[in-house]
């Protein structure tokens, strides 16, 4: 058979895989073209700089994938691979606050032993609220490590009061698949994100190739139930509440934007786009009285376009790629299910894991500072890869910024320049979003 014949047969097979009905996976929403706003140019307030260069590596080699970070005084709490929440003390001490799952057999067994992501301080007790994409959302006592499962992945009570039909309600109240971000309100309730519904966290590549199936939800501590606020979020990620809790924001990894859901006022119960066209994939959000920090985990710009945004307009191509991943992974999943083989577990973990693409990510690491009106106040970049792939930025002390990461084996720390501190203190206005909330929110109480 000649080369043309082989190419024809290969093309025919690929077309069958792409278009043949009934092949896995069965997605929540059908494959359709997705519109993603073009990234804002790296000019003005977004212009490249080296303000994050030379990041100090804290506990290098001892913190595996410190994704979520919160600070209280001089003590830092981080979520790391293996289902652990760690406390980092003033003198370099490290204490395991709690472990959510069983012991790991290797760095490829996260779906068994856990991989906590989002973390926030509880407002009703000395606890941490922790979201794990495999094990659900937990309440963890900071001192004793006592754990309580609040949102189970298998038996979560999710309700939807606004669905226009039973069929829609059934879809919107589906069980969570990737609990990710969490933000606790003053009354003890919390808002959380479910990144996607079609694949688990270790298959993130397949998940972002499907049409958006992430959600923003509100959990009532009194009822033990979650309510859907926004559905079809493209990679729902970090969550943060405004200081007066009049609205809640959720970051979109795939859409490179931030959505807003109104909790109070004339627009209560509605949502809109808070800001879009961000120069990277949005990860965690954390705020204070004057604004909030945004970690851009994968940089994107005119020279380094997002692979998600490039593929978004082409549903048939995305479906083909997803099906190819599923077909390649299927025999290893069957093998592991039948024998418990470690190699099969390793293979299923790495096929489709977003961490496998890190070498292809742009070198730029970026953190944004926004005010509560949607203005970009500051953009901090690096170009030396000392702290790129940034999941979260959290102030520490008077002049430092801690940088979490889903791939690094250390916690980054940079010292902010006097000019940066002056800008933060002055609240200088930068680039406004297309839509802005009306009025400046009052200060949020200290936790």
Structure overview:
This is Strictosidine synthase conserved region domain-containing protein. Pfam families: SSL_N, Str_synth. Residues 1-30 form the signal peptide. Belongs to the strictosidine synthase family. The structure is a single chain. The chain is α+β, with helices and mostly antiparallel strands and 447 residues long. It has one domain (23-425): TolB, C-terminal domain (Neuraminidase). The protein has eight helices and 25 strands. It has helices spanning 3-19, 110-113, 166-172, 204-209, 307-311, 315-339, 342-350, 418-426, and strands spanning 56-58, 68-72, 75-80, 84-88, 94-99, 119-121, 127-132, 136-141, 147-151, 158-159, 179-184, 190-194, 214-220, 225-233, 236-241, 247-252, 257-262, 271-275, 280-287, 291-299, 365-371, 376-382, 392-396, 400-404, 411-415. Strands 10-14-13-12-11 form a five-stranded mixed sheet, with no helix packed on it. A four-stranded antiparallel sheet has the order 1-25-24-23, with no helix packed on it. The chain is globular, with a radius of gyration of 21 Å. 43% of the residues are buried. Residues 433-447 have low confidence and may be disordered.
């Amino acid at each position: 058979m000649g080369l043309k014949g082989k190419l024809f047969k290969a093309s025919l097979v690929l077309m069958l895989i792409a278009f043949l009905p009934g092949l896995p996976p069965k997605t929540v929403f059908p494959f359709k073209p997705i519109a993603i706003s073009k990234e804002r140019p790296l000019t003005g307030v977004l212009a490249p700089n080296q303000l994050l260069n030379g990041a100090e590596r804290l506990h290098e080699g001892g913190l595996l994938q410190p994704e979520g970070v919160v600070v209280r005084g001089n003590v830092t709490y981080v979520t790391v691979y293996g289902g652990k929440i760690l406390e980092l003390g003033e003198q370099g001490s490290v204490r395991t606050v709690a472990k959510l799952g069983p012991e790991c057999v290797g760095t490829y067994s996260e779906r068994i032993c856990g991989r906590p992501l989002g973390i926030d301080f509880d407002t009703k007790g000395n606890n941490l609220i922790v979201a794990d994409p495999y094990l659900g959302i937990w309440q963890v006592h900071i001192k004793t490590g006592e754990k309580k499962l609040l949102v189970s992945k298998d038996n979560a009570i999710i309700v939807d009061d606004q669905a226009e039909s039973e069929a829609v309600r059934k879809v919107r109240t589906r069980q969570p698949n990737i609990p990710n971000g969490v933000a606790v309100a003053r009354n003890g309730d919390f808002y959380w994100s479910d990144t996607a519904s079609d694949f688990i966290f270790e298959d993130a590549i397949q998940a972002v190739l499907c049409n958006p199936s992430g959600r923003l939800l509100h959990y009532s501590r009194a009822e033990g139930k979650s309510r859907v606020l926004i559905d079809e979020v493209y990679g729902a990620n970090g969550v943060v509440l405004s200081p007066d809790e009049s609205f809640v924001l959720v970051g979109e990894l795939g859409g490179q934007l931030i959505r807003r859901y109104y909790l109070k006022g004339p627009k209560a119960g509605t949502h809109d786009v808070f800001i879009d066209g961000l120069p990277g994939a949005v990860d965690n959000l954390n705020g204070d009285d004057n604004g909030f920090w945004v970690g851009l985990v994968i940089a994107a710009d005119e020279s380094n376009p997002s692979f998600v945004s490039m593929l978004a307009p082409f549903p048939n191509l995305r479906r083909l790629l997803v099906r190819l991943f599923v077909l390649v992974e299927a025999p290893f999943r069957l093998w592991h299910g039948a024998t418990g083989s470690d190699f099969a577990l390793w293979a299923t973990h790495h096929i489709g894991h977003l961490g496998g693409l890190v070498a292809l990510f742009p070198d730029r690491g970026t953190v944004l500072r926004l005010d509560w009106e949607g203005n970009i106040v500051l953009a901090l970049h690096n170009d030396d890869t000392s702290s790129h792939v940034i999941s979260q930025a959290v102030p520490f002390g008077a002049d430092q910024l801690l940088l979490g990461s889903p791939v690094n084996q250390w916690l980054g720390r940079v010292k902010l320049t006097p000019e940066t501190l002056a800008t933060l203190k002055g609240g200088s206005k930068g680039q406004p979003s297309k839509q802005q909330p009306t009025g400046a929110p009052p200060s949020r109480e200290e936790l």
